[in-house]
Amino acid sequence: MQVQTYLYFNGCCEEALAFYRQHLEAEVLMSMRFSESPVPMEGSGEGCTGNTMPPGYENKIMHCCFRIGKTEILASDGMCTGTPDFQGFSLALTVADKEEAQHKFGLLADGGDIQMPMEETFFSPAFGMVKDRFGVSWSVLVEQPQG
C-alpha cells in the first residue's frame, strides 16, 4: 500500500512544476495533457466533467508525477474551475543543515507568504512555515540529530 499527495493547481500546474524544478530540483517523471487523453474530450461546459472541458484546456495538465528528493507527488490542473485551495495540510521539506533550510525557505517564500519565520525550535535547529506562490503550505526543517 502507498499513500501519495495529489495537488490540484486549477490551471497553473505547468507554472508550479517549473517553479519546483528551478527551486527544489524537482524532476517530472510523467505528464499527460487533456489533449492526450485516451478518451476524447470535447471543449464545452463550465468545468471538466465526464468528457467535456472548457475551451483552451487542451494543453493543461490532466495528470503528472514529479519527484522532489525521494518523494513522488502527483498533480493536475484539476477540475478546471475555481482557484487552488490547499488547506489542512503542509508538505514537510527536510534538509541537511541550517544553511540549506534558510535557502530553500527563501526560495519558497518568493511570491508567497511566510507563516512562521525560520528559527530554532526544540525539535529542529531550523524550522519555518511558508505558503508558496501557488498556495501550497511548506514546513521547512533540519532534522534534529538523534541521541
Automatic annotation (TrEMBL):
A Pfam family matched in the record:
3-dmu-9_3-mt
Positions of the PhnB-like domain:
3-140
The superkingdom of the source organism is Bacteria
Q: What is this protein called?
A: VOC family protein
Q: What is the lineage of its organism?
A: Bacteria, Pseudomonadati, Pseudomonadota, Gammaproteobacteria, Cellvibrionales
